[in-house]
Amino acid sequence: MVKKILLIEDEAELVELMKMRLEANGYEVDFAYDGEEGLKSIEDNRPDLVLLDIKIPKIDGFEVCKIIKESPATKDIPVVAISALAGKDLPNRCREAGAEVLLFKPIEAEKLLSKIKELLKKKEQG
């Protein structure tokens, strides 16, 4: 069964690059350009995994992640936080929000694909 990934990212070029890479690896990809749109997509489409930029319009990635993890219907969806931001507290803030993994931009494709596989496998095993 094809796994669905939702990419919430406001940089259109990055969305296209990541979408092509993920689809080439057999994933179905939806995308949203802001936190509000992303939450609606999660509600409507129930992805298997969310790739979530931290610095996005309307509702930032920290808040989107908290909302995902606080809802009984979506709390089991793995979240991979992605960010170009630096800062010592960023990994802690992502973890506190509920993200399973934090990756920094520019994202290495192999590392991203490896983390996605690992998280989806964990999710299947319960």
General description of the model:
The structure is a single chain. The protein has five helices and five strands. With 126 residues, the chain is α/β, with parallel strands linked by helices. The chain has one domain (4-125): Response regulator (Rossmann fold). Strands 2-1-3-4-5 form a five-stranded parallel beta sheet, sandwiched between helices. Strand 4 (79-83), helix 4 (90-97) and strand 5 (101-104) form a beta-alpha-beta unit. The mean pLDDT is 96.
Question: What is the alpha-carbon Rg in Å?
Answer: 13 Å
Report low-confidence residues grouped into runs of 5 or more.
Answer: none
Helix content: 40-55%
**Count of all domains:** 1
Strand content: 15-25%
CATH topology: Rossmann fold
Features:
126 residues; alpha/beta; Rossmann fold; five-stranded parallel sheet; 47% helix; globular
